[in-house]
Amino acid sequence: MASKRKPQARTEPVAKGRFWPRSLHGRLVLIPSALLVLGLLGTIGVILLHAKSRISAEVTSSVQIAHDLAITALHNVADADSRSAAFAALAQDLPRVRHVQFDLAASDGTAQSTIQPGADSVTPQRASILASLLAPPPVVQSFPVTVHGKDVGRLIVRSNPVDEIDEIIGEVELFSLVVMGVCLSTAGGLLLTVRRSLRPLQLLADGFDRLEHEDYRPIADIPVAELARVAGQFNQFAASLERVTSDNHLLIGRLLSMQDHERKEVAAELHDEFGPVLFGVRAEAACIMKQVARGTDVFAHAQSIAELTDGIQRVNYRMLERLRPLVLEQMGLPEALRQLLASWQTRSLEIAWSLDVPPGLDNPNETVALTLYRAAQEAITNAVRHAEATVIGLRLARESTGGLVLTIRDNGHGQPESFRYGFGLLGMMERVRQIGGSLSVSGARPGVVVSIAVPSHEKQAMETVHANPVD
Ligand SMILES: Nc1ncnc2c1ncn2[C@@H]1O[C@H](COP(=O)(O)OP(=O)(O)OP(=O)(O)O)[C@@H](O)[C@H]1O
Ligand SMILES: [Mg+2]
Fold first, then answer.
1. Would you list the domain boundaries of the chain?
2. Does residue 109's CB lie within 6 angstroms of at least one atom of ligand 1?
């Protein structure tokens, strides 16, 4: 049965945080990925901190070596022939020292040169904020160049750690790339694992969706140990629900057929017993009125008996119509609905009634017509009884697919929070189910809309019902 149950009021989960992902996939992948990225950043931070002190120590020891070499070299050129010979000897004697640059400057400012061999290696390759953060404070030492006791210039020793910084940044970059690759492949692997592990939950969710449409097929074996138990319980639950639902259908079907049987019996009594008796009373009263003179007490009593009998006959007729709507057989569903509304109209004048049936709508078969008529009766009774509606409208239409749709809409205060199915709606559902149709009862703000759809194969559906009567 495709009947839609009224959705119960749902309590929306309160969002914990704006950035907290709603999907379980997201949550299970996001946290480890965030931890990995934090770990990567932390490791890089530690490496850089360590690198700074390492560079500083290296530069200090290089400057110390350069200092010693400079003293020795200056001592060796103290007897040189000239300033230029001394400068040339210094340039030749001073060996390459990592992280240090030697400069020579003449005292009179006429000559200045960098004598550190491989000076190109001190050109910074990565002039960046990181490089400047890693660089230790510069160290500059200046020594006088003395030739035959005369000061001819200065030998300057400068710290220059850019090659070391360059090397460290290169290492950090390589390390980051490798770790980032590991992080990405870990996150990808995690995503795949989580997706595969959560697939059983999807199967369970699909199973619950199917239950809502009364499809009780068990879900397949789940290979995840933790969820296999839940799947087993779900299957047991679905099997019990199937049993209970089919018992319910059987029970409601029996109640409906009992109700129909009783209605028929009461209608027969009213028609065959009560009707003739009333007719007799009315005839007797008319007879008395003929035999006594107008204006006498007996005439007045006979007249009031006749009037009361007329009233009871009208009530009897209305009751018969409700119990066994002959008009349905004689004039078809549209006319029966019109008369149903007309009879309500006389009783509930405060309500604005409307009926929308397209002209020339062909009459459905007897059982479909009776099902729709009974549904209309129940829905109208509910709207009047429970909703305090002031507008009630009925619409019967044939859809482009060939199916019939009956809609009963009211503008009342809608279904209460404590909504419970009564026999009215359950009976309506069962009748509609038996003809292969679907029923939906939904809030319309304001009011309620009850909609019954009977598929185009209504005749086929009926044949099936007749072949399997519920007794
Ligand atoms: N049009 C409506 N507007 C507001 N509430 C409604 C409407 N129709 C149904 N209800 C709610 O749905 C409940 C179930 O309706 P249902 O017809 O199944 O049972 P009932 O009318 O209470 O009893 P009965 O068995 O006599 O029909 C009602 O009690 C009422 O609260
Ligand atoms: Mg009811």
1. 24-185, 214-324, 334-471
2. no
Residue 278 has pLDDT above 90, yes or no: yes
Among residues 302, 65, 441, which one has the least CA distance to residue 57? 65
* Model pLDDT, residue 353: 97
415 CB within 6 A, ligand 1: yes
For 24-185, CATH number out of 3.20.20, 3.30.450, 3.90.550, 3.40.1350 equals 3.30.450
Q: Report whether residue 427 contacts ligand 1, using a CB cutoff of 6 Å.
A: no
- Is the beta carbon of 419 within 6 A of some atom in ligand 1? yes
Give dist(CA 213, CA 69) in Å, integer: 92
Q: pLDDT tens digits for 168-226?
A: 888 888 988 998 898 889 888 888 888 888 888 888 889 999 998 889 999 888 877 87
Q: What is the pLDDT at residue 458?
A: 53
- Residue 131 is predicted with a pLDDT of 80
Q: Which bound ligand lies closest to the C-alpha atom of 428?
A: 1
Q: Which segments within 343-399 are labelled E, that is strand?
A: 352-356, 391-398
Nearest atom of ligand 1 to the alpha carbon of 427: 18
For the Cβ of 386 lying below 6 angstroms from any atom of ligand 1, the answer is yes
pTM comes to: 0.58
Is residue 7 exposed (0-12), middle (13-18) or buried (19+ Cβ within 10 Å)?
exposed
Identify the architecture of domain 334-471 in CATH.
2-Layer Sandwich (3.30)
**Residue of the nearest CA to atom 22 in ligand 1?**
422
CA of 238 to the centre of ligand 2 (A): 29
Give the span between the Cα atoms of 441 and 4, in whole angstroms. 7
Are the folds of 24-185 and 334-471 the same?
Answer: no
Atom of ligand 1 nearest to the CA of 418: 31
